[in-house]
Amino acid sequence: MKNILIVEDQVEALKLLGMVLRAEDRKIFLSESGEEALEIAHETIPDLVLLDIMLPGGIDGYEVARSLKNDPTTAMCSIVVMTAKVQEQDRIEAFKAGADDFISKPYNLVDLKNKIARLLQ
User: Fold this and answer.
1) What is the number of structural domains in the chain?
2) Nearest 10 degrees: CA dihedral of 82, 73, 118, 24?
3) Which residues, 6+ apart, have CB-to-CB distance to 85 below 8 Å?
4) What are the backbone angles phi and psi of residue 114, rounded to the nearest 5°?
């Protein structure tokens, strides 16, 4: 069983991703904030985190990625950053924070599914 944590502040997008990515060999966890994402990650140890950058509250996606990668319990999880911030500097910052892949919004679901399948192998 693979654990996938989806972190997205837009509730409709969060629910849609949860439904689209659901499969027999996957357990999906949903979070709307960075703080909640870190709590869930420490409880579930996700194999993959789909992470929005712009999140409400004090912790953005970059900080979530850094925290996950710096914690030995969650350091091995793969992180795919999903963001509307598509400048080259945003991409560089995402990879510096620990992202394994980057996809811009609006994203193509087929492309996203392919990235997920590759990272969950």
Assistant:
1) 1
2) -100
3) 53, 54
4) -65, -40
How much is the pLDDT for 32? 96
CATH number at residue 83: 3.40.50.2300
Q: 3-state SS of the chain? A: CEEEEEECCCHHHHHHHHHHHCCCCEEEEEECCHHHHHHHHHHHCCCEEEEECCCCCCCCHHHHHHHHHHCCCCCCCEEEEEECCCCHHHHHHHHHHCCCEEEECCCCHHHHHHHHHHHCC
Distance of alpha carbon 25 from alpha carbon 104, whole angstroms: 26
Is 76:105 a contact under the CB 8 Å cutoff?
no
Q: Is the pTM for the entire model greater than 0.90?
A: yes
Asked if 74 and 39 touch (Cβ cutoff 8 Å), the reply is no
Range of the domain at 24: 2-119
**Confidence bin at 84 (pLDDT 50/70/90):** confident
Q: Give the CA dihedral 53, 101, 27, 41, nearest 10 degrees.
A: -50
